[in-house]
Write a structure and sequence with these properties.
Length: 211
């Protein structure tokens, strides 16, 4: 029996990667409808990692990042954290809002206005909703995300708050690297699903995967 995320084997990871790909496709469709233009999304990497590795994935703890956090409720429970380096968040917002990207795309000191923050929250909402909808459709489980919360701070500070909460439910996460592309513009974000202890047993059983 899968007692925690570390018990998953390569077959389980393949199943989760496929869900990630389907979710990315759904998210790209939703974003394209929202923007009325084509946005592609890919899932280059899916990995199981310890929560301590999350900070290593993000790099320098003093790196400015945008963190979008949602709770997962229903038959599967846990937390979702979507992190963009601030430079990537500026580029993504500009991409989505049709602004020029060559002036502000590398500006770590950029101050997001209310409209841009709303856009980032909506991106997190669409991304999380698309992944969870894919899970729900394949499993017939009832899964829903909460309203997203957003923080702009150094990576270390962003992680310090969820670390306390995540410590209650386990120390491993599902990492999905997510790429947004529009034409020759490319943005990479880090998507983390932090499940409650028995979430993966419920998920794999619903998918009919032996474990």
């Amino acid at each position: 029996m899968v007692k925690n995320i570390n018990d998953l084997n390569s077959i389980h990871i393949d199943v989760l990667k496929e869900i990630g790909n389907i979710g990315a496709g759904n998210a790209a469709t939703a974003l394209a409808k929202l923007l009325n233009r084509k946005v592609d999304m890919d899932v280059p990497r899916v990995k199981i990692m310890g929560f301590r590795e999350v900070s290593e994935t993000l790099g320098n703890p003093e790196l400015p990042v945008v963190g979008i956090m949602l709770k997962v409720t229903g038959d599967l429970t846990g937390n979702i954290l979507f992190v963009l380096k601030q430079q990537a968040a500026v580029l993504l917002v500009n991409m989505l809002m049709g602004k020029p990207t060559d002036e502000e795309g590398d500006d770590e000191g950029h101050v997001f206005d209310e409209l841009e923050i709303s856009a980032l929250k909506e991106i997190g909402n669409i991304l999380a909703g698309s992944y969870l909808s894919s899970l729900s459709a394949l499993t017939n489980l009832n899964i829903a995300p909460s309203v997203p919360g957003l923080a702009i701070d150094m990576a270390g500070a962003i992680l310090s708050v969820p670390a306390i909460e995540f410590g209650k439910v386990g120390d491993s996460v599902l990492y999905i690297e997510t790429e947004f592309t529009e034409g020759d513009k490319r943005v990479v974000g880090d998507f983390f699903l932090i499940p409650d202890v028995d979430t993966y047993s419920v998920l794999m059983k619903a998918l009919g995967v032996s474990f």
